[in-house]
Amino acid sequence: MIGWIETQSLPVVILIAFAVCYAIALLIWLAAASLGKTRLADDLKATTPGMMPPLSVFVAVLVGFIAARVWANFDRAHAYVGAEGSALRQAGMLADGLPADSAAALHAAIADYLHFVAAEDWPAMQRGRTDLQQEPPALTAAFRAVLAAAPAGAGQQLAQQRATIALEEVLAARHGRILLSREEISPAQWITMMLTGIMVLLVAAMVHLDRRRTVAINLVIYASSLAACLAMLLLYDLPFGTGGRFVAADPLHELGADPR
């Protein structure tokens, strides 16, 4: 269910998050209205408001802990894509310092790799079906083109060494973004966050059980806060997803027209 929500557009994700939280708040309000007429009402109204701060702090710490990791992953995703594009551009520039046949082969391999990323690798990564055990044929061809070059002087030898390092950086960045694409908020974390949020809503209802309007106002305030947190996490959870806020392959697409 969470996976499906995260594939939706930004407005849909926000709408679902707020709809779920308001639905929970409405159910709690209806339950409070019903229990307010029973013998249990006096016991529930005895709930001390002092329970609210610890529960709220616990929810805030939990959300903050998860959000910190989600945002860090989002930043890392941008860094991996940027590093991959930068290394590819550097390899393309260094290709001009190699012998003519090796340079042409390297440029062709880089162009093939960019096409592979756009047509196969990136969509497969978004679906979580990328195989790290199998290296891209185009990247293997690029290594082969560089290592097969016969440098005619110190300049070409240096270009060969730097091009090899650049291709290794491309490979490392690709591995990094693929591994990062598999990280997500675990079901246990979602359940814990929702349960603690519901506990806060329940306490807010019990403290003012005999005041329906006050209960409704409190529930709307807390439900809105919880929904905003959930929407934020859902939008940024998958940095390479297809919905919400995601990292695009723009630096690689820009290279597609001019690998050099």
Notes on the protein architecture:
There is one protein chain. This protein is mainly α. The chain has one domain (2-255). It contains ten helices and no strands. The protein has helices spanning 2-6, 10-35, 40-45, 52-95, 100-126, 137-147, 154-181, 187-207, 212-236, 250-257. It is rod-shaped and about 95 Å long.
Structural class: mainly alpha
The assembly state of the depicted protein chains is: single chain
Helix content: over 70%
User: Could you tell me the strand content as a percent range?
Assistant: under 5%
- Low-confidence runs (pLDDT<50, min 5 residues)? none
- Major β-sheet profile: none
Distance between the termini: 43 Å
Q: Please provide the ordered H/E string of secondary-structure elements.
A: HHHHHHHHHH
Mean of the pLDDT scores?
88
Shape: rod-shaped
Number of domains: 1
Helix count?
10
Rg, rounded, reads 27 Å
Total strands: 0
Quick structural gist:
The chain is mainly α. The protein contains ten helices and no strands.
Secondary structure: elements and pairs:
Layout: H1 2-6, H2 10-35, H3 40-45, H4 52-95, H5 100-126, H6 137-147, H7 154-181, H8 187-207, H9 212-236, H10 250-257
Notable traits:
single chain; 10 helices; mainly alpha
